[in-house]
Design goal:
The structure holds two protein chains of two kinds. By secondary structure, chain A is of the alpha+beta class. Helix content of chain A is about 15%, strand content about 30%. Chain A has two helices and ten strands; from the N terminus they run αββαββββββββ. Chain A has a five-stranded mixed beta barrel with strand order 6-7-8-10-9. In chain A, a hairpin with a 4-residue loop joins strand 9 and strand 10. The longest helix of chain A is centred in the N-terminal third of the chain and has 23 residues, at about 5-25. Chain A is elongated and about 70 Å long. The model of chain A has no long low-confidence stretch (mean pLDDT about 95). Chain B is α/β, with parallel strands linked by helices. The longest helix of chain B has 16 residues, at about 20-35. Chain B is built from 15 helices and eleven strands. Chain B has helices at about 20-35, 60-70, 85-100, 120-125, 130-135, 140-155, 160-175, 190-195, 220-230, 260-270, 280, 290-300, 310-315, 330-335, 340-355; strands at about 5-10, 45-50, 75-80, 105-110, 195-200, 200-205, 210-220, 235-245, 285, 370-380, 385-390. At the A-B interface, helix 1, strand 6, strand 7 and strand 8 of A face helix 4, helix 5, helix 6 and strand 5 of B. Strand 6 (about 105-115) of chain A pairs antiparallel with strand 5 of chain B, so a sheet runs across the interface.
């Protein structure tokens, strides 16, 4: 059973237990599975989805369509920003330039996420890494390799734009250089 | 700046506390703290409630708690610094008294993580980093973030999984002696090695559980302490603090929590402690072992052991009772449990009791100098607080 199926089955059984309690005692009260203590299971469920402004990073998203990865650069001090931001907090200036990143670098660290957040539980276990690019900035992303034993801190990697097929949108990923 | 002392402490049992609601859970630590302080609600000017929330139903916990305890009308606020919220509340309370704004203040930590079900809790805590750039597309989790440090540390210094396991074994060893701990059970290396990965190389037995709990610390000015005639006062000698980037990708080498290092050295400076001699001064420490790797990093960030030697220290049992510096004789977050908002103040409660030599004999540190240290980290090194306590004013 996948993690999502297990979670969904649990939530469904909870729902049924509450319905049963309402039928039997006219109240949404059930005993805690672990302790047997009486719980009120809330009838109000919260659905939450964010609408985050990325208008200042429009160029970053447009470049993904062309397979390019961009960062911002301060024209005064040369500081690079990834994630891109239109504010150099050293020079206190806005109006930063867009520059394309080489994607070439080395792997700083990585992990394989096994226990996943509910909103990722429909996916297979994934490896997340942090790559240090030759330009001096780091990028966190999924690693294309599925076997952790084939990875090593310090190995050469490339960061490239890729469509995440399972979810149908563009992201970027870390690919070991020998691939 | 006025001196600030601790006059009363309380600590609930940590664990799955579906027997109590949030207000009742606070009472379990608030009542003994108030009785020990020998004061009434009238004496309190302000309550700082450390609570991360989101998984629990009350959106204004400080207000709900004040109503239940009969503190309505007092100044109140919730304090959030992720897993370091408790230390942030302690600092806010300390500063208010130190500045002369109030004489007696309550710092109350509480978390009811089990008011939500595990899938939601994993989801919420995974978002405790940078939402858009590290969670939304890449599904990072809390153990996943610390695993970045574990992988880097292990490969850089040649530490093994067994070395992380030694931390879990030590903390369960002491947790087994602490009646307030969530897990009062020893574990073996076999148990550890057989436990499943949650975020490779971090296993379930490297990780803190999902916990409910509360802790209360009552702080007072020197004048108030004299007036009340409070006994066994433990003094706050210095609180160091720092922060680090939201995006983990902006960190440098993943071999140290830089915010914790900065917080430690600031605390040492404030308390006039020589960082080179810290292990000979401090009798006992509580450090933030949300994952076993975090305790190893803490040893090094606090200057207890050299960089890259933290894992050797636990191999040599130098952080057990009677060792160079005993760490987490409460069981730590690993075995005592980690109800986020209650954790930092829980450390201060434990250390106050340790300094008064009032914990269970089998886990009581040898108190020679009367100094203790609490190291409390929020998120993945996003927030850091280090507090120095002493029986000497």
């Amino acid at each position: 059973m996948s993690q999502k199926e297990a979670f969904d089955q649990f939530l469904k059984s909870l729902d049924e237990a509450v319905k049963e309690a309402k039928r039997a005692i006219k109240l949404p009260l059930i005993p805690d599975q672990k302790t047997g203590r009486l719980l009120w299971i809330s009838n109000r469920e919260l659905r939450l989805r964010y609408a985050i402004s990325v208008d200042s990073n429009k160029k970053f998203y447009e470049a993904l369509l062309d397979g390019k990865l961009l960062a911002t650069k301060c024209p005064t001090c040369g500081a690079l920003y990834f994630p891109p931001q239109d504010y150099c907090n050293r020079c206190k200036k806005q109006g930063l330039q867009w520059v394309e990143l080489s994607g070439e670098g080395e792997l700083l660290s990585y992990t394989k996420v096994v226990v996943k957040p509910y909103s990722f539980s429909h996916l297979e276990d994934y490896i997340v890494g942090i790559a240090k690019l030759k330009e001096g900035i780091n990028i966190l992303a999924w690693v294309s390799e599925k076997d952790v034993s084939k990875l090593k801190r310090g190995m050469k990697v490339n960061v490239r734009v890729k469509e995440r097929e399972e979810e149908g949108y563009l992201v970027y990923e870390i690919v070991p250089a020998q691939d | 700046m006025r001196k600030v002392g601790i006059i009363g402490v309380g600590h609930s049992k940590f664990g799955v506390r579906s027997d109590l609601n949030m207000n009742e859970l606070v009472l379990e630590s608030f009542k003994p703290a108030m009785e020990e302080a020998g004061i009434t609600n009238d004496d309190i000017s302000f309550l700082y409630v450390s609570n991360v929330g989101f998984w629990s139903s009350e959106e204004l916990p400080a207000i709900s708690i004040a109503e239940y305890l009969g503190l309505t009308g007092k100044g109140a606020m919730r304090v959030e610094a992720a897993c370091a919220s408790g230390s942030a509340a302690l600092k806010a309370a300390h500063d208010m008294i130190s500045a002369g704004e109030a004489d007696i203040v309550a710092a109350i930590g509480v978390e009811k993580m089990n008011e939500s079900f595990t899938p939601s809790v994993v989801e919420i805590i995974g978002r405790a980093g940078n939402y858009l750039w590290e969670f939304e597309n890449f599904g990072m989790t809390f153990p996943g973030y610390y695993a970045m440090y574990a992988t880097a540390y292990m490969q850089h210094y040649g530490a093994r999984e067994e070395d992380l396991g030694e931390i879990a074994i030590k903390n369960h060893h002491y947790g087994a002696k602490n009646p307030l701990a969530q897990f009062q059970k020893e574990i073996t290396m076999e148990d550890y090695l057989n436990s499943k990965y949650v975020a490779w190389p971090i296993k379930l037995l490297d990780s803190t559980p999902i916990s409910d709990g509360s802790s209360t610390v009552i702080l007072a000015s020197e004048d108030a302490i004299r007036k009340i005639g409070a006994k066994d006062v433990v003094w706050i000698k210095g609180i160091g603090y720092s922060s680090d980037t939201s995006n983990l990708s902006k960190r440098s080498d993943f071999l140290s929590l830089e915010a914790a290092r900065r917080a430690a050295y600031l605390a040492y400076k404030k308390a006039g402690v020589d960082p080179e001699k810290v292990t000979s001064l401090i009798d006992v420490a509580e450090v933030h072992d949300c994952f076993t790797i975090a305790e190893i990093l803490a040893y090094e960030d606090l200057g207890f052991f050299k960089r890259g030697e933290g894992f050797i220290a636990v191999r040599e049992k130098q952080t057990y009772r009677g060792g160079k510096i005993p760490v987490n004789l409460s069981g730590g977050l690993k075995a005592k449990g980690h109800p986020l908002g209650a954790t930092g103040l829980g450390m201060v409660v434990e250390l106050t009791k340790q300094l008064r030599m009032k914990v269970e004999k089998s886990r009581q540190a040898d108190i020679k100098n009367g100094w203790a240290l609490a190291h409390n980290v929020g998120g993945t090194g996003h927030y850091a607080y280090v507090t120095l306590l002493s029986t000497q004013k």
